[in-house]
Amino acid sequence: MRDFKKLQVWQKSHLLTLEIYKTTSLFPKDELYGLVSQMRRSSSSIPTNIAEGCGRESNIELNRFLTIAKGSASELEYQLLLAKDLNYIDSVTFLSLDEKINEIRKMIYGYGAKLL
């Protein structure tokens, strides 16, 4: 079993999740059960799957959960684009969050590659 809290990729994805929660708290109230909920679930799915994978018995299982985390990062990337296009976030916020997502996704790829 690995301590996920020591992984830089988990730490960064956790911070991203906190930032997404803060950002979406400013969205229109009618999006609470729509885009807000989806973005919060997508963002929290990234560190959640990293943590769950670290609790598994093998590198193969961990890699499977890392793949799910990468998918959640891609999902969040689209949702951010949608939020920008709906003018819920500005371009500066979008670029900052998008850069963080891409950095995390690269870190997940790198971590997974080291496991094989």
UniProtKB/TrEMBL annotation:
What Pfam families does its record include? Answer: 23S_rRNA_IVP
SUPFAM superfamilies per UniProt: IVS-encoded protein-like (SSF158446)
The record's section on CDD domains has: 23S_rRNA_IVP_like
Protein name as annotated: Four helix bundle protein
The organism is Arcicella rosea
